[in-house]
Amino acid sequence: MSEENSDNTSSKRKFLGIIFTCCNVYGRLYKNKAGTAYVGRCPRCMRPIRVPINPDSSNGTSRRFFRAD
Ligand SMILES: [Zn+2]
Predict the structure, then answer these.
(1) Contacts of 41 (CB under 8 A, 6+ apart)
(2) How many CB atoms lie within 10 A of CB 26?
(3) pLDDT digit string (tens) for 7-47?
(4) How far is the CA of 34 from the centre of ligand 1 (A)?
(5) How far apart are the CA of 21 and the centre of ligand 1, in A?
(6) Is 21 a domain residue?
(7) In a domain? residue 4
(8) Residue 20 sits in which domain range?
(9) Distance from the CA of 5 to the center of ligand 1, in angstroms?
(10) Could you tell me the distance, in angstroms and rounded to a whole number, from the CA of residue 29 to the centre of ligand 1?
(11) Residue 38 C-alpha to ligand 1 middle, in angstroms?
(12) Is the pTM of this model over 0.85?
């Protein structure tokens, strides 16, 4: 009866803390539904940003700073 939650895994929702270089502010990107990328927007200028998750890296990505061009 609760098939809506069937997509949820046991892992918590993860996020990536980054610096939005467009405004030089700190923010977070959250994993998308498919788990293939971190997505979010700059908190100041609302610019969308998307960081693909590298399957080669065990941690998803080791980079901590991204540009929101
Ligand atoms: Zn910005």
Answers:
(1) 27, 47, 48, 49
(2) 10
(3) 445 456 688 888 898 999 999 999 999 989 999 999 999 99
(4) 25
(5) 7
(6) yes
(7) no
(8) 12-66
(9) 34
(10) 13
(11) 16
(12) no
